[in-house]
Amino acid sequence: MRTFRIPDQVARLAVLFAVAVVALVVVRHIFVPKSFGKLGHYRAAAVDEIASQSVRYAGMQTCVECHTEEAEKKSSSFHRGLACEVCHGPASEHASDPEAKKPFVPRERGACLYCHNYLPSRPTGFPQILEKLHNPMKPCPTCHNPHDPTPPHVPGTCSACHASIARIKAISHHDSLECETCHEASPQHRQDPRSALPKKPTNREFCGKCHAQNAPSAKEIRRIDLATHGGRYLCWQCHYPHYPEGR
Ligand code: HEC
Ligand code: HEC
Ligand code: HEC
Ligand code: HEC
Ligand code: HEC
Ligand code: HEC
Ligand code: HEC
Ligand code: HEC
User: Fold this and answer.
1) Atom 6 in ligand 8: residue holding the nearest Cα
2) CATH 1.10.287 for domain 55-105
3) Would you say 105 and 77 are in contact if contact means Cβ atoms under 8 Å apart?
């Protein structure tokens, strides 16, 4: 009769397994804090520890009570979405005793660059500058009031911001056309671009105003048969409107 024998390799594994279980129990006993698991999958004592920390941020409502001037300026500016303590740091001690404790005042360029230095990952259109080129050496508040940072003068032309489009149009057949011929733009677009986007042409007839066979435009403008040319596609699916190529 053959006796049943546990294979060697299984025996060795069983020993390892037993050691692991014992180690786990020991480690758990030594290292897992006593209050772990009492209220859920975390250390219950942490609740009291965190609650006992002193409050460092006062919140914007508190600042507004005493600093109405700064708050009013900021409320209608580009910085309306920023809380005071984003720039001035935690200031609850100051709020409860203004004379004794002064908050941090970020006069260095670095404080603004944290949000405004060029980074490709920022959202399209977010106002950015190149630190080295944008009025170097001077602190930002010299020219921008931090509570209402509107640039000192509003750019006058479309090319101030859309330089590459303006430059390519200037060497194209559409050089004689103003941007506004095709884009109705309110003055507000130049002040706060994304709050008032200009209109863009939406149909073939728009280009037909100058290029259709019977359009009342200047004789030398090239004509196409609006009904058939390019099929039913929009003109700018084939012609880049800022540099249209024909023949
Ligand atoms: C109870 C009224 C009060 C509250 C609340 C208050 N402040 Fe002030 N704060 C003052 C006074 C008064 C001064 C002027 C002190 C001086 O010039 O001697 C001052 C000065 C300042 C200064 C200028 C410091 C300097 O060095 O010139 C800053 C910045 C400031 N407060 C930010 C804040 C912020 C941010 C908050 C909200 C977290 C806040 N304050 C809340 C009363 C207040
Ligand atoms: C974008 C960052 C920023 C935000 C947001 C901001 N501040 Fe300031 N604040 C500054 C800077 C920078 C200065 C220093 C200005 C200077 O030196 O001319 C300053 C100066 C001050 C001063 C001192 C004024 C003086 O003439 O010395 C007070 C008071 C103040 N801020 C309060 C506030 C309050 C209240 C809020 C929120 C309603 C706020 N700030 C939001 C950046 C900021
Ligand atoms: C916490 C981030 C943050 C900090 C710090 C900050 N800003 Fe801004 N800034 C913004 C936001 C958000 C806007 C609004 C962008 C928009 O309207 O699309 C803005 C807008 C501006 C604009 C308007 C640009 C335009 O569109 O014409 C200027 C100028 C400006 N900030 C200057 C400053 C200066 C100077 C400082 C330092 C005192 C500063 N910012 C600090 C977030 C910040
Ligand atoms: C010598 C004055 C001066 C100083 C100093 C200055 N700026 Fe400006 N800033 C301007 C002017 C003028 C404009 C508007 C015209 C332009 O775009 O150059 C402007 C525009 C901006 C814009 C808007 C750009 C856009 O695309 O709409 C931002 C953001 C800005 N500045 C941030 C800063 C920051 C941050 C600092 C400090 C590191 C700073 N500025 C220092 C004068 C200044
Ligand atoms: C102060 C800078 C600035 C000036 C000046 C400016 N723009 Fe813009 N414009 C912008 C920015 C920033 C955007 C992009 C907004 C975005 O992508 O969210 C934009 C977007 C546009 C768009 C695209 C709109 C869309 O729906 O995609 C058109 C068209 C346009 N601008 C035309 C013009 C014309 C025409 C002028 C001159 C009358 C002009 N812009 C002047 C900053 C400017
Ligand atoms: C002949 C008409 C015409 C002229 C002139 C014109 N555009 Fe456009 N533009 C268009 C059309 C059409 C589109 C839409 C393209 C699309 O939807 O893909 C457009 C799109 C844009 C856009 C959106 C981004 C892009 O490149 O598609 C901007 C920004 C813009 N134009 C700015 C300008 C500026 C600034 C000028 C003057 C320097 C100008 N345009 C002149 C017809 C024109
Ligand atoms: C499917 C692509 C396509 C579309 C859509 C299209 N075009 Fe064209 N277009 C061309 C090509 C390719 C040429 C050059 C070859 C030719 O003359 O047919 C051209 C040439 C032209 C010319 C020059 C004609 C000449 O006599 O030299 C004009 C003007 C023109 N297109 C305007 C338009 C207008 C306006 C629209 C919208 C109504 C439009 N195109 C839509 C492809 C297109
Ligand atoms: C206000 C009148 C006007 C409008 C609107 C207009 N164009 Fe033009 N276009 C011209 C003029 C002027 C020329 C230069 C003369 C020429 O070559 O026909 C031209 C030239 C062209 C050419 C010919 C380029 C070549 O090689 O000869 C094309 C293609 C063209 N435009 C496409 C368009 C498209 C696409 C649109 C609509 C987004 C458009 N145009 C809107 C006036 C206009």
Assistant:
1) 207
2) yes
3) no
Residue 82 confidence (pLDDT): 95
Q: Is the CB of 122 under 6 A from ligand 5?
A: no
Question: What is the distance in A from the centroid of ligand 1 to the CA of 101?
Answer: 9
pTM of the entire predicted model: 0.59
Q: What atom in ligand 3 is closest to the CA of residue 125?
A: 18
**Residue identifier of the C-alpha nearest atom 7 of ligand 1:** 95
Contact 49, 43 (CB under 8 A): no
Considering only CA atoms, which of 242, 221, 237, 235 is closest in space to residue 171? 242
Tens of pLDDT, residues 174-232: 999 999 999 999 988 988 788 899 999 999 999 999 999 998 888 889 999 999 999 98
- Closest ligand 7 atom, residue 234 Cα: 5
Environment class of residue 190 by beta-carbon count within 10 Å: exposed (0-12), middle (13-18) or buried (19+)? Answer: middle
68-75: list long-range contacts, CB under 8 Å, 24+ apart. 70/147, 73/145, 73/147, 73/148, 74/147, 74/148
pLDDT over 90 at 58, yes or no: yes
Question: pLDDT at residue 153 above 80?
Answer: no
Show the beta-strand stretches assigned E in the chain: none
Domain residues of the chain, as ranges? 13-51, 55-105, 109-141, 158-237
Torsion of CA 206, 212, 216, 221, to 10 degrees: 100
Which residue minimizes the CA distance to atom 36 of ligand 8? Answer: 207
